[in-house]
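---------- Forwarded message ----------

FYI, see the Membrane protein insertase YidC record below. Original note from H. follows.
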Amino acid sequence: MLDFVYWPISAILWFWHKVFSVPFGSGSGVSWVLAIVFLTFTIRVLLVKPMLNQMRSSMKMQALQPQLAEVKERWKGDQTKIMEETRRINKEAGVNPIAGCLPILVQMPVFFGLFHVLRSFNRTGSGPGQLGLSIEQNRELANYIFAPTDVQSFLDARLFGVPISSYISMPEDMYQAFQPIDFTRVNIILVAVPLIILTAVATHFNAKMSITRQRERIASGKQKAMGNAQMQSQMEMMNKMMVWFFPAMIIFTGVFWHIGLLCYMGANNIWTFFQQRWIFAKLDREEAAEEEAKKEAKRATAPKPGVRPENPKKAPKKKRRSSGERGNLSIDKVVGDPSTPEDVESADTTELGTVAEPESPGKRPAATPKKNKNRRKRK
């Protein structure tokens, strides 16, 4: 049913087992555990960029909460309009809520795929999902990409004296697949319980790290709190589930987890711890750089000390031309283009003013005679 998941998982596990078989040997439990650990790291490396984009999208969505709350209040009762406005706001901000779920959606099939592949190394049981094979049939049957020799190597490998695919609640009749039977249920418990506790504790502290950072950002004003009491209550409930419920679920369901799967969860939590610290530091640097760019742009547009800021509403008006300037027209408009280089008599009129003689080449233009006011007064 999920062969498109099982085959790639088995292929990556096979590759890393071949790599670590060189220094440790193919039948060593160390080579198989390291193969599981590096399978985890391979998947997480591929998810680094989607996880970073998911964190950036989450920060943008938190900044959009006031707008979304305003939309819900404005279009209260009209779910269609609320959805349209929410999509519009997310699109304008470049936020894709569905893309934020990609890292979780990818890791879940990997977890169940690894669980199935490790379980399929031992198919001698008669319970749900088991084939009820004999010991000989099980050792001679391939497991996805693993050849029968690889299956035998896995069954014979031990980690602290117990098989890697063993688990606390495993039926005793399935012990027969791991020849020789040199372990008991107590041995499995002694190895599995510390791994279960470590996985649960690591899950708790990783979730607490994320929630602590969120509360610090809200306290510093970098992130706004939820708009209403209902949304804030839902967020608190989710935080409590991440910090307490998920670790408790690991403890109570750990009796069904293979030793190899517990190694996967431990490696996954180690990677999550360092990746979160790196992503948080990177996002903080990006946010600080963005704030600094905004301040620099504000300083660049601010007026200099002692300089009065310009007001575009109070722009200087255009200077109107005086009556003398309007009256001083060119000779072309008054008498036209003269055909002979004769002097043109000046026209002394009140409307048009005094018209100067046309300039001849090389001749200095004559000054416009001024009106003799005294002469007029005598008359």
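H. also flagged this: The first strand starts at residue 158 and ends at 159.
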